[in-house]
Amino acid sequence: MASTSGTKKDPMVPAPIPRAPSRRMTRMPTMMVELNNDDPAAADSEMVPSSLAAIAPILRVANEIEKDNPRVAYLCRFHAFEKAHRMDPTSSGRGVRQFKTYLLHKLEKEEEETKPQLAKSDPREIQMYYQHFYEKYIREGEQTRKPEEMAKVYQIATVLYDVLKTVVPPGRIEDQTHKYAVEVERKKERYTHYNILPLHVVGIKSAIMELPEIKAAMRALRSVDNLPMPRATSTSHNPEETYQERVKSVDDILDWLASIFGFQNLPIICAKLPYLMKYVKPKCTILAASSDLIILSLIYVFGTVKKGNVANQREHLILLLANMDVRKRNLEDYNQLDSATIKRLMDKITKNYISWCRYLHVKSNLRFPQGSDREQLMLIYIALYLLIWGEASNIRFMPECLCYIFHNMAYDVHGTLYSNVHPVSGDAYHTPAPDDETFLRTVITPFYQVLRKEAKKNNKGKASHSKWRNYDDLNEYFWSKKCFKLGWPLDLKADFFVNDAPPANERANQARAAGKRMPKTNFVEVRTFWHLYRSFDRMWTFFILALQAMIILAWSPTGSPAALFSDDDVFKNVLSIFVTYAFLHLLRAALDIILSFKAWGSLKFTQILRYLLKFVVAAAWAVLLPITYSKSIQNPTALVKYFSNWAGDWQNQSLYNYAIAIYLLPNVLAAVIFLVPFLRRHMERSNFHIVSVFMWWAQPKLYVGRGMHEDMFSLLKYTFFWIMLLISKFAFSYYVEILPLVNPTKLIMDITVESYQWPELFPSGTYNMAVVIAIWAPIVLVYFMDPQIWYAIFSTLFGGISGAFSHLGEIRTLGMLRSRFGSVPKAFCRHLLPRSDMDTRKDLDDTIDRKNIANFSQVWNEFIHSMRMEDLISNRDRDLLLVPYYSSDVTVIQWPPFLLASKIPIALDMAKDFRGKEDWELFKKIKTVDYMGPAVIECYESLRDIIFSLLEDEADKIIIRQICYEVDLSIQQHRFLNEFRMTGLPLLSDKLEKFLIVLTSDYEEVDTYRSQIINILQDIMEIITKDVMSNGHEILARSHLENDSKEQRFEKINISLTKNKSWREKVVRLHLLLTVKESAINVPSNLDARRRITFFANSLFMDMPTTPKVRDMLSFSVLTPYYKEDVLYSDEALNEENEDGISILFYLQKIYPDEWTNFNERLNDPQSETVNTAELVRQWVSYRGQTLSRTVRGMMYYRTALELQCFLEFGGDNAFFGGYRTMDLNQGDNRTFFDRAQALANLKFTYVVSCQVYGAQKKSDDPRDRSCYTNILNLMVTYPSLRVAYIDEREETIDKKTQKVYYSVLVKGGEKLDEMVSMGRRRFGTEFQLMFRVLKALLFLAFVSVMMVLFVVCDLTLSDVFAAILAFLPTGWAILLNISLLCFKIGQACRGMIMKLGFWQSIKELGRAYEYIMGLLLFMPIAILSWFPFVLEFQTRLLFNQAFSRGLQISMILSGRKDHAQHPT
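and the corresponding structure tokens:
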């Protein structure tokens, strides 16, 4: 693959010819090609044909430096054009001619418009710009810029120098320019693009690279000094050069493995400047012949944006080792990995391989010779498996095939380390692989070719399952030792690689491997309804035998189950169920042979023998049991006699009893093993031949699905559940369904009918069997169907009991939340924060409570802010729900205002109306109300702090201190009611409310605003000193005596304090405490917000394990598949009206009215930043639909939660004094802390979106595809930790033929791309809509006409319609209702006479037949037509008018159907 980084020469491109690019280009006039893109820069870099992908980085550099130096940008585009012409001089590639024409036209225009700025000629211009670029961005930026920024800068410098060499003759390149170019070439590898770990970056160290666990993992992987270095054959005769050429240096274990086996360790292909991009070639040309085959496994890419598979797995392995090793480790003196960590990781990765070796009785090739470095060998084996997996492509779906590959390559590793000895030096050595695609070409390609050919035989899902082999069939080939016939290196003539029926597009004379094609293995799908029985044969058998036994018991004279123990005949008859069981067992054995017959060609002989023997044995029992049962009729015994006589007279028992005992012996043994799951699990997983022979009869031995059983306690719970369910089901079936029908059935069977007016269904039958069958049929159907009903009932009961013990649903409503909110912070810290020793100390309960609330407030407030940003709550709701951060100014716990609603007004009324004389009575009365006491204290202390901080004059502050001193002293001396008048509190409250409103209001005139505050403050102090305090005038008098100045009190205030955010929040909270009434009880009003709050609070009381620290958490990754769904709705889609005149935006405004109001409030907030209103509207609508942006936003909350968790863990007590949102990142400590939280979040969480056609959307001309591409790019810019994986398709020339080559790509966001594209969505035309309406109208008229004919001609009545409806009900109750209806109709005429004649039952059967026929005639066409979408849509429109959602009324839509949606102002 071509390179644009300057590190790999393109063999197809000749040496550049020196030329003077400033010379005017002359050619014939050309027509401008119209590209459907509003941004020409984007057209340059993104619309490049796939065969010219190598020039895309040059065009991106030109776009990047366009504003800085247009002339140099022109030179870059000219160089790109010349390179494109050399790559495809005949313009034979797809889209090449159009692109070259477009680019040439652009160059002609720029030739006239651009002029050199720094010099008089182009060679001098580009050299001066290159030097300027180096000095400004590289020399000065190495110690100040981030690694991502430096990677971009170095890539621009590399491309610029490539262009410079084509513009400037070699002899005229200045020494300074050459020196800078050498430095760029030497240092650019240090700044390669990366995914998570900047392994090679110098300069500013990333916080994640400073983590000790990362350093330890890197140190372990780079221990390669004792490994044999690769030696290649050299043609040089210079002894000094020979050694340098023959020895190939490696950086770590993965590089060493890549040099042996030829794993992909390729240079960077391209890096898009607005965001980082990496192309890895893990599948390459093996996919070229199958462009229509979707390769799903390519989507998920572990790794980085650097050097292919080796770099991917290097980062993968480092992160795995770091995450596993850091758990429960002491971070002090953390220098190397724990050997147990490496052993644990190797056991997890090679677990399947070890199991595979034991299953095949093959010795494992994980060898650790005496005296070897065991840890290093384990890392080598781990890295080898990851490198195999990284390039395995679709072979990843064949895990045992990977085991076979790993088995042989691990043997080669051992041979390389301990077998190859140099004959001269005596050192171990090995010959490196020919190239970086050796493993891909020699190992993966043959297996993939088999997959590709088998997939073509599928015929897009139309071919029979037996005609082609899927992943499972091919993988099961490696479940037996015959897989070793493939050899190593692979023998392409083996049966696995043979394909008897080549695809149609392959040439007939194409060479094919000799041999016979391997057939399907173990299973071939046979599509038949018998699977309904065979898949659940044990359930059907059990229900059939139980039904037979219950009918026998109900048919007995007593009809009681006790007859089984006392009546010999009943017991004898019940024993006949074993005969039935034998025939059902024979049916199952026959179905096993029939359903697996097509797979017999690939089954082992032992498996075929098992099927045949099971059928023979079942047939023998089906003959033996009926014979012995007929013999036992002469010797009946009851159940009590049966067991009592066995011990004393077992020799004289009937042969049938012995046959039953022998027949049930395997079932008894299976039941015993079932009750001991540990023994069963051990036997199934055992690879001993004796155990395998023993288990052979029970089930065929397969590699997968062995030993999958629960523990004993879970088994007991499961068994108890089903025993209780079956007891209830059978009791109901016996006493409600079966027993009541026995006596009527006996009466019907005893009735003798000589002739029928209508034909009898069984004319030669006896006992009126047709009537009996008609009565019992619905009961039998209900008998087999009602287990589902009983399962639903018992699931509800047992689930409710289990949920109660697990504390599920303890908080289901906001009322319950308010009543238990005091215990929520403690539950939060107990479950979601790591415990410390301080939490267990009993002497610091108050401190711990305040600490718990402070920690809880961080998460709770972030949760509330997230709902506000989603517009689920308003600003007022947010202020009412927020919990204040920890503050040392208030001595009580500060609860959220929604809990304190109306507490202060009620307390004021209580104090005003209080008629007692003792302080403690008033205080007790206040404290009896929940949260009222803390609310009063908080209001007093907050008001004191607000006024005190607002005053500037020290004399004014002294007055405030004296007033507060009097309040505190009077409370301590129990004379508060004597010193203060409670009747003045309402007036004081009104003034305080006005005072707080003024403090929080915006102002333009400072003097006017200051005067308002001073006037109200003076009024407040006057009320306090004259109306509330008894001796307030004395305090003011003393103040005047001490200060003889003529200045008035309380006129010097610090008005700048009103701009302080934390101070304003305190004022807002105090205002809410004073003014919030009972209406706050219903906060929030949004249903979804309520659901989230109650769910969050309820989850805190569930039984959960203790939360570990972030460093000790398990790392996890999330993958979201995406194809072509909407990312964000476009403006056209929002306002486009459907056939009812309703747009998406209007519809969502009506069904989410409160959220739309909250959205407008957020837009009009004066404190919000200036934003693009149209873009926010698109986001608001898209977040309420099934869009990718909504999914990504929800998933990225995981990362935010991890960062917040780090804030709580490492912030310490300093975190309590401010919120997570208010942290100042400009401070050094905060910046370091934030970077460490980001690093840990990157270490623990990864989110990848597999945008399968992202590459095609990027190059597409379709407006919708371009919109998806731009929106996905914006998502990556918004969420820097988001990764997008996709498959890129390119055309490359291989053996002088153009072939499609596929690359797996992983991209991450960087700088924002300034690109405007058109957006839209295609809809059906108005002509189609009109035709659709006419068609539906015709169908409706046809239906009405048919119904009218039936009513007029055929005498159809409403009773017939009602009876037909009842006939279609799926239970037996419909028939009973029909009988009642017929009895009513017939009884009006001649019911008595018919009953005397004995025809009553026959007439009822005739009525049933009439109902069934009418039901078929009337409602079968309706049922069939309802399957068609247009009929279903017509019914929906007729009933709901497409507006049935969240209780929306139709009038809300119809009233404004022609009005345009309201946009925010």
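(Above: one complete record from the training split.) Residues 712-750 form the longest helix (39 residues).
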